[in-house]
Amino acid sequence: MSDTISVEAFQQEVAAWLADHADAAPRDYGAICPPDQIEQGIAWQRTIRDAGYAGIHWPTEFGGRGLSVEHNGVWLLECAKAGVPPVLNMVGLVLAGGALLRYGTPEQQARHLRATLDADHVWCQLFSEPGAGSDLASLSTKAELDGDRYIINGQKVWCSGGRYSNWGILMARTRSLDEAKKHDGISFFVFPMDLPGVEVRPLEQMTGEAEFDEVFFTDVELPTDHLLGPLHGGWGVGMAVLTSERGHIGTSVISLERRLDQAARIAEGRDLGAIERQQLTELLSRGNSYKAMAQRQGPVASTAASLMKLGITEMMFDVAMLRGDFAGADGMLEGPEVSGMLSAPGGRIAGGSSQVQRNIIGERLLGLPREPRPQ
Predict the structure, then answer these.
(1) What is the CATH number of the domain that holds 287?
(2) CATH number where 50 lies
């Protein structure tokens, strides 16, 4: 049976609980738990579960509270205010969970959903490939039917959490490009990461860190009951999962406010000249305009989100470069300024490249002609 608590009363309950328990949480690492925080992240997920805040809008038969997406939005907002992660890992609790709730068979739902809330099943996303990043439909990893199993061969890249996950959501081609258009013939699978023939390699970045992994599949045998959704219909499954989860605009505003506060503090202890003050003022003004845009957009994401993604990405790149300029010669030595400058270009790729965001803005918001597609 579902709870009947009002959104307002639930928000008060959540705020009070977080005030008492936020000290036990890991740092607010965002959507994806980094490898060095996985033990703390799992412990926090189980604390959330024990308190009744895991799967707030999931049905009660799968361990959720049976509340509304508005109740879940309150949880996200209050976690943002408290500076704690709302879930262990967005891939598991949002993407994999959302796909299983919408497309899973009863057996798949019984096997995975409660175990995901309990952090017994930890998930990674096996979508992007070396030749299929922003253009995901060009993926080439194959899943060839062979009796009661699929044989998986291929490679995935930019996989967050691959080395610590025991399950993944996999998109693979079940029809060749000769047989179907590239958006067709793709299927969606729940994938055990411990199968023979799976190799996970940390992917070292130019910062020296390895936040992501490469995953290689060599003649991996995957039972047919791991198919999620219709055969050859995986593109629709993936896109529905990526776009259907409704967020809360307050969380993005709070995150942006914190970034602006951090940007403002780079001037502390420095005697800035007129040009430097102008540069910093311009960046802060730009950030506040994005904040106003987010507040106008409302709680339901739209294509206008591409304006936010592009604008904030470019703003944070400029902030990192300005921080390096302010540091002078010290900005060439190992430290936070150098780390920030080396990390900044990655923001132009993550979550949809800046080039793709410009195409979306031009074609869907401004009504410009579509970019020519080579045959």
Answers:
(1) 1.20.140.10
(2) 1.10.540.10
Catalytic site positions: 245
Tracing tokens 């918001």 back to the chain, one arrives at: 365
Taking the chain (375 residues) in runs of 10, the rounded mean pLDDT of each run is 81 96 92 91 97 95 93 90 92 93 97 97 95 85 96 95 96 87 92 98 82 95 97 92 56 75 79 85 88 68 71 87 84 81 81 81 86 69
The whole-number pLDDT of residue 375 equals 60
Torsion of CA 251, 252, 257, 259, to 10 degrees: 120
Number of domains in the chain: 3
Run of H or E including 192: strand 186-192
Q: Do 214 and 129 reside in the same domain of the chain?
A: yes
For residue range 192-236, list pLDDT tens digits in order: 999 999 999 998 877 777 888 999 999 999 999 999 999 999 999
**Which pLDDT score, from 0 to 100, does residue 3 have?**
67
Indicate the pTM of the whole model. Answer: 0.83
Q: Where are the alpha helices (DSSP H) in the chain?
A: 7-21, 38-51, 69-82, 90, 97-103, 106-117, 234-244, 249-264, 274-297, 305-327, 336-343, 354-360
Helix and strand numbers (H, E) in the chain are 12, 7
Distance, in Å, from the CA atom of 115 to the CA atom of 76, rounded to the nearest integer, reads 21
